[in-house]
Amino acid sequence: MATITIDGKQIEVEGRPTVMQVALANGIQIPQFCWHPRLSIAGNCRICLVEIEKMPKLAISCQTTVSDGMVVRTTSEKVINAREAVMEFLLINHPLDCPICDEAGECKLQDYAYQHSAGVSRFEFDKVRKPKRVELGPRVTLDTERCIMCSRCIRFCDEIVKTPQLVFTKRGDHVELTTFPGEKLDNPYSMNTIDLCPVGALTSTDFRFKSRVWEMSSTPTICQGCSRGCNVHMWVRNNQIMRLTPRLNPDVNDYWMCDHGRLNTFKSVNAGDRIHGPMIRKEGQLVEVGWDEAVASLVSNLKSFRGGEIAAIGSAYATNEDNYIFRRLMTHVGVENFGFLSHIDEGRADDFLVTADRTPNSLGANLVAGQQGRAPADAESIIGKIAAGQIKMLYVMDDDLGSVPGFEDVLPKLEILVVHASNHSLTTRNADIVLASSTYAEKNGTMVNVTGRVQRIKPAVATLYDERSLDGFSMSRWDKFGAHNDRWTRGQKFDVKESWRILVGLGNAIGLKWKYANSQEVFAEIVAKIPAFRGLSYASIGRSGAPVRTPSEKPVAAGT
Amino acid sequence: MTRPLPPIVHRKDLTFWQKLYIPEIVRGLKITITQMFRPKFTRQYPEERWVPGAAFRGRPVLVEESGVERCVACGLCSRVCPALAIEVQASESPYWKERYPVKFEINMLRCIFCGFCEEVCPEEAIIMSKEFELTFHSQEDAIFPKEKLLKSKEEMKERLDYLRANR
Fold first, then answer.
1. Is A383 inside any structural domain?
2. Residues A475-488 as b or e (16 or more Cβ within 10 Å = b)
3. Class of domain B60-165 (CATH, top level)
4. Distance in Å, alpha carbon of A478 to nearest chain B alpha carbon
5. Is residue A340 located within the same domain as residue A368?
6. Has residue A51 been placed in a domain?
7. Residues A426 and A476 grouped into a single domain
8. What ipTM describes this predicted complex?
């Protein structure tokens, strides 16, 4: 145990942390460019210089370990002058093109220029010119001029992903970040270097120049790329998702997320193949109809078959709330064949974040649906029963049977195919009734990740039935002050409803008298009925999630 | 709490001359007739137009330099605009100025001619013009697209010189 004094504040510390760690843990701000809590200490940016008594010169706080009786000053005149000098040096060759740079608004160098810089430069010569728009890899574009040589990205590749791909070449003010000869920055986590980059040197090729950071709202939610359930921020402008960035959760994904999750999981939400309103097959064609007509048609179909003739397929893509209500309704109707599809791709898993299960909620879906009546059946046995003529009606919620072998062959044997879907797929093209359901970006709910952690998804994109200002959405300045006739508030809203809400409507149409007003009420019932969720609530799950009560050592795979 | 009563106004009685009436009429006519022979200031507006000076803040325009807009679509004008009149969508350009506005719209029904956009612009790309006569037949007409906003640098020389001189 050592006692140190930082800015007159006496602090007791355990072990041998650095001055930086102690200061940050005690609410004392020290600027930093190259230091990152999860990376090794490089100590090359020099912005974190502090004055330590009995030391002849200023010391970098990121690498100086504390010792008993140490007296540190972070705001003395000497320190402030040193910071101003470091900023002046950094800005000698850094281009002042903030209006063009994508980092503007979330740039450390820009922020520190306001906080720690004198605001003037004595450098009156030409800046060093370096290559711009360098394609470092398939997803990352580098502006070499803007690089301040902090080496965070190099250390990330070396230490976190363990694929050394980046390196500095040349010396002095001619230092350039580049890839090793013949290498590309193409590791599956390469885009984390964009978040790590304190300036606008590393930019996302996908997001480049798409939007200013202050024009978007950000919603804390969960990535749907695999069963890891990385915590993310979803950035939305004019009801369109612009990008995803990782959100710190030390128990799940720490500061990171994979490139697949960041790029490929949200584009379907604003894609052209979205389903807009319910549809019914009339004379061989899918026709858009009203919700009442679709539900009435579904009710008459449900009544015309016996429970044993109907099979239902829940979804590991849907929330616990959706699957719970689905299973409850199907049990009421007498459906015995209830199952999930498995979307496991062993080749995709790695030893960092990505898991083999390509769905975000197979554990939760099995927990909430599997404990009512019979254990879920697998897709093959359901297909087999359709082929044998035992099952005549198939009800699929938020999943696509296109990947199931033999599905297309048994289609003629089915009399009625009902599907909840947000985007068109092989299943919807062959369906008789299509109910337009919300994507994960349009609804509230909970999901259980591969380690048995219950996490919240939150709506970031409004549907026809949502009003951003009234329904608890994150709001950008434009959302707050826009009028209905502004072009920048008229982003497309789809005529879709959450699957559980569609099912509640259906349940009420067959006389169940369900009174769920929101997903929270559904979750409260899950908590009351299913032991794994006992004691949980939306409030206790919060932003960082909470473990289910009986976390299984081995994750329950979908469809088993 | 009772409110204090308003003070009572005692109107003065008319004087003898005012009671005579005719002299007062003559005095009024004298003022009118003198005005008729004074120089006229009235402008015959639609035929006779006023050209404002360089300091005048008319509708904002985008400066075009050698065929391309100066604007780099940084979005600062859009951010500073107190009336949220400006919408900018950036994109990547093939030129050394990597960024350009693929869409730049000003809703002239929202614009309050405050000139903040001109003041904040780091590229001297959006400036106030002398144009102030704006009429529209629909709300959609009031949204000016980039093509309608672009004015050449030469055309806007007076304002640009004024801005340089008064920075």
1. yes
2. ebebbeebeeebeb
3. alpha beta
4. 8
5. yes
6. yes
7. yes
8. 0.86
| A63, A188: one domain | no
Distance CA A215, CA A82 (A): 35
Give the number of domains in chain A: 3
Q: Chain B window 61-120: which residues touch A at a Cβ cutoff of 8 Å? A: 72-76, 78-79, 84, 87, 90-92, 97-99, 105, 107, 110
CATH code (residue A177): 3.30.70.20
Whether the CB-CB separation of A500 and A444 falls below 8 Å is answered with no
Between CA A321 and CA A500 the distance in angstroms is 6
**Separation of alpha carbons B87 and A531, rounded Å:** 52
Locate tokens 């009003």: which residue?
A467
| CA count, 13 A, side-chain hemisphere, A336 | 9
Q: Does the distance separating the beta carbons of A99 and B72 come in below 8 Å?
A: yes
What global pTM score does this model have?
Answer: 0.91
**Tens digits of residue pLDDT in A50-72:** 999 999 999 999 999 999 999 99
Which residue of B lies nearest to A487 if distances are taken between CA atoms? B87
**Structural domain harbouring A297:** 279-547
Mean pLDDT per block of 10 residues along chain A (560 residues) reads 93 94 95 96 95 95 95 96 95 93 94 92 91 95 95 96 95 94 95 96 95 96 96 96 96 96 95 94 94 95 92 94 94 90 91 94 89 69 90 94 88 93 95 96 96 96 93 92 86 95 96 94 94 93 89 42
Q: At what angle do helices A320-333 and A362-370 cross, to 10 degrees?
A: 30
